[in-house]
Amino acid sequence: MRLYDKTYSSRLMLGTALYPSPAVMRAALQASGASLVTVSLRREQGIGASGAPGFWSEIRDLGVDFLPNTAGCHTAREAVTTARMARELLGTNLVKLEVISDDDTLSPDLFALVEAARILSDDGFAVLPYTTEDLSVAEKLLDAGCRVLMPWGAPIGSGLGLNNRYGLRALRERFPEVPLIVDAGLGAPSHAAAAMELGFDGVLLNTAVASSADPAAMARAFRLAVESGRLAFEAGLMEPRDMAAPSSPLGGRAALA
Questions:
Q1: So what's the pLDDT on residue 225?
Q2: How far apart are CA 243 and CA 163, in angstroms?
Q3: Among 11, 96, 118, 230, which one carries the catalytic annotation?
Q4: φ, ψ for residue 122 (rounded to 5)?
Q5: Are 99 and 67 in contact (CB under 8 A)?
Q6: CA-based nearest residue to 142, from 113, 170, 182, 168
Q7: Which of its termini does the chain have fewer beta carbons within 10 Å around, N or C?
Q8: Which of 24-33, 47-56, 111-120, 155-164 shows the lowest mean pLDDT across its residues?
Q9: Angle, vertex CA 183, rays to CA 40 and CA 33, nearest 5
């Protein structure tokens, strides 16, 4: 999976929130095979301190890249400030840009999102915007300098899967060369496989793994689902039919008197 100027070995991206302990989080990240993980700036109080406990000490030696996010931001200004602080602390230009409009659905504020994306892109950030499947917004985000789009599958943490497959399919077809990652709402490995079968380049999830009874096992399940979904897409899925089509040849049947 190539995002901006770097290639990642895994198409599964995993979040680092909600785990019952840092050790459980570490085991899940290892089982997932993820090479890019999201982190919230609010969790990074120990960065730069020698022997920092907890979250940072558990994750810093896994060999993964960090994707800081602007989770919880409600304005373009707040998101831009958070992104700049994250770059200073983590030393990366990558940022998952979130600007939230509604606390109940955690849906993105698309107007503020485009505004913040333009500011950050002009400031040298590699922006991965959390957005919807709206085609016109996608155009505006690309015009603002984004080279990756992250449409939601469903509201964050809902586990509903792909709420609008038509919209996601249309987005994939409209922008065949743009890396697209389904972000948010995936609750089961089958949801991830379905996204990959649509031709998406990757998926990002958190709650479905972190809140499961066995996060490491669930992370491995999602890893396998992403791999199988991508393989199916590359192999070429059969087109659905309205009527049955026999798989056995009709010729050579016995003639009954």
A1: 98
A2: 26
A3: 96
A4: -65, -25
A5: no
A6: 113
A7: C
A8: 47-56
A9: 75
Amino acid 109 reads D
For residue 4 the two structure tokens come to 């901006």
Helix 165-174 to helix 135-143 angle (10° resolution) is 40
d(CA 257, CA 242): 34
Is residue 223 pLDDT above 90, yes or no?
A: yes
Could you tell me the CA-to-CA distances from 221 to 32, 106, 117, 183 in Å, in that order? Answer: 8, 26, 33, 17
Q: Could you give the CA distance from residue 64 to residue 41 in angstroms, rounded to a whole number?
A: 17
Residue 96 falls in the annotated catalytic set? yes
- Can you point out the beta strands (E) in 175-256? 181-183, 202-205
Q: Is the dihedral of CA 216, 66, 81, 171 positive or negative?
A: negative
97 DSSP β-pair partners: 129
Look over the chain and give the mean of its residue pLDDT values, rounded to a whole number: 90
The contacts of residue 58 (CB under 8 Å, 6+ apart) are: 22, 23, 25, 26
- Sign of the dihedral through C-alpha 6, 9, 10, 16: negative
**With b meaning 16 or more CB within 10 Å and e meaning fewer, what string describes 60-72?**
eeeebebbbbbbb
- Four-point Cα dihedral 167, 148, 132, 224, nearest 10: 70
Backbone angles phi, psi at 150, to 5 degrees: -125, 80
How is the beta sheet containing 126-131 ordered, strand by strand?
150-151, 126-131, 94-97, 65-69, 36-40, 12-14, 202-205, 181-183
